[in-house]
Amino acid sequence: MNYVHSHPYKKVILFLCLALAMTSYCQAFAAPFEEEMEILRLFYKEKDLVVSSTRHPKPISQVAENITVVTAKEIVEMNAHTVAEVLNRIPGVFINFSEGVGSFGSTSLIYIQGSEDRHVLVLVDGVAWNFLNSGAAETNAIPVGIIERIEVIKGPASSAWGSSLGGVINIITKPAGAAARPAGSVRASYGEKNTQDYRAEVSGRAGSAGYYLYAGKQKSDGMLPSRDFDSDSLYAKFHIPLAPDVTAGLTMGYSDPKFGLGDYPSGDITSRGDSRTFFATASLDASLTEELGLQVSLRRFQQKSDLLNNALGLGFAGAPGELFLNNIANEETTGGSAKLVWTRGAHTAVLGADADRGKLDQTIQAGPLLQTYGVPATSAVNPSVDRWAVYANDTIAVGRWTVTPGIRYDDNSVAGSFLSPSLGVTCRLDKDSLLRASAARGFTMPPLSWTSGGGLFFDPNPSLKPEQVWSYQAGVESSALKYLWARVTLFRHDLDDALKRKPFAGAAPVFNDLYVNAGSVRRQGIEVEAETVPLYNLSLRAGFAYVDLDPANENGSTGIHTWNVGLRYDDRESLKALLSGRYVGWDLDPALMASYDDFIWDLNVSKKIWSREKSAVELFLSAHNIFNGAQYTRGDIVNPGRWVEAGTRISF
């Protein structure tokens, strides 16, 4: 069934006519324009001037979307242990740490510009990381040591990636080596509460084949009771030339986080999680002609999540240690993609297709207390979903202008189909300033458990439609001032068919809750970022984001905002330091007993004590939450106070 109603189609037709008109305008006024990219050159290296908003690299000066790029070098300087820690420093990205900000290995919920967590698509090597049962993604199973760069697209990216109403977090892993001599690093750190993080990586070339290998171990007794963490991870990447214009690629990854989610006295429960993740990809890249390239890839993703809730024994949920609820989800997704890239003159056109099949095996085990409310001791469901899509876009760079029209059609065997057009425009106002504007239609498919599986006290609703949005963003960035780069972005997202939980709407005799498409949501706001060039080895970076929500979200928030501040020192020889502060104003319902009046400040210092050619030994020290600030979203989840760790990093 197609859930794209007649009135959205009128918008789509008008939208495509506008895209065609803009394309014709640019080509009519084509003129030679071959100046070097000077915008942001003081702030980014050449390799950082390309992003994949169209699923093919292009200069950042041609990207109309609101994108932030974080590099491996920046991740090292943060001494980040998880992807969520990295994302927490990006304006417009809101992270709710389930075990409190600063908890080692904490699970998290990711929101972009006020979206829901299920609206954010997370990709690793092109593999969707989101759970089928909830739609959200848990990133603590992704080792940060394998990351080359993270590209965060804020706002819908459905014309390229499909179901991604809130945005996309595209994690690109480190490349296979090209040199015969192996290169790599070994890292070890130890902190309070037996907190440990060990990583080893090596890359190189064996014969004609390039390789990258990684192994990691993280462990902590937890900064607070019942918040321990233990995870092992492995990753491998191979790049194999088959012919002068044909290469094959293979990646494999595994991780197994086990973690304590903490005690919740208000509900008389203690929670633990146990998960396992495995993914693999195989790809073939071929240059068919000088202008035409082909990429074909296959992927396999498996993840198991086991969330166990037992009674604390405070008098409500049962005797100490008695089962309250255990939710087990086994998920498997197998799929593939194909993409053609055509480059000629002002055009870089991409035509592609995606297809996959996902299967969910969900088991819910209820304890004695829940059974008294009619919940069966054990219930199991195993829904599946088939998805396919075709997409196309064209980056047209003419003179100072770049226009990028795009469109994608998605079909989902459970929730129907959706058409996602987009149009982006950039204009170089001068050699130092850039104007961006974009409009896009996006969507997010409902989670599989909401349509086909059900859960605790809610029934599945097979008639759910995709949530859909029309999004508009515009911004300007400039380095015209001698020592300052600045960027301002305005955004508005108009969401329809928003999913809401409706109490007692299920069938008799149980009358469970039901998720329904109900009403509209408007999210609008502003992002401001600024960074100075180094002066006496010091540079300052700051960011602010505000989102106005109408109506209020399920936590009572009508306006949320963040402040980010970073002071960086780099003597360009041996000493580096980074002082970072983050404030989040959640505007939560007082009943949640949250506290977020403080900035959370972290300090990272590193000192190179020996170096020779391509080898070096470095010592580092990190102090987390150095002023014991409070920042948590529920009274049961108080964040850790100050804690310290130190370690060494050896590169070769």
What this model shows, in words?
Helix content is 8%, strand content 56%. It has six helices and 36 strands. It is mostly beta strands and 652 residues long. It has a 24-stranded antiparallel β-sheet that branches. Strands 3-8-9-6-7 form a five-stranded mixed β-sheet. It has a three-stranded mixed β-sheet with strand order 25-29-28. A hairpin with a 4-residue loop joins strand 16 and strand 17 (292-311). The model is unreliable at 1-44 (pLDDT under 50). The chain starts with 5 loop residues before the first helix and ends with a strand.
CATH H-level superfamily title: TonB-dependent receptor, beta-barrel domain
Number of β-strand runs: 36
Structural class: mainly beta
Shape: globular
- In terms of DSSP E residues, the strand content is over 45%
Q: Which CATH class?
A: Mainly Beta
Indicate the mean pLDDT: 92
Can you tell me the number of structural domains?
Answer: 1
CATH topology: the name is Maltoporin, Chain A
Biggest sheet architecture? 24 strands, antiparallel
> What is the rounded Rg?
25 Å
| Architecture (CATH level 2) name | Beta Barrel
Number of helices: 6
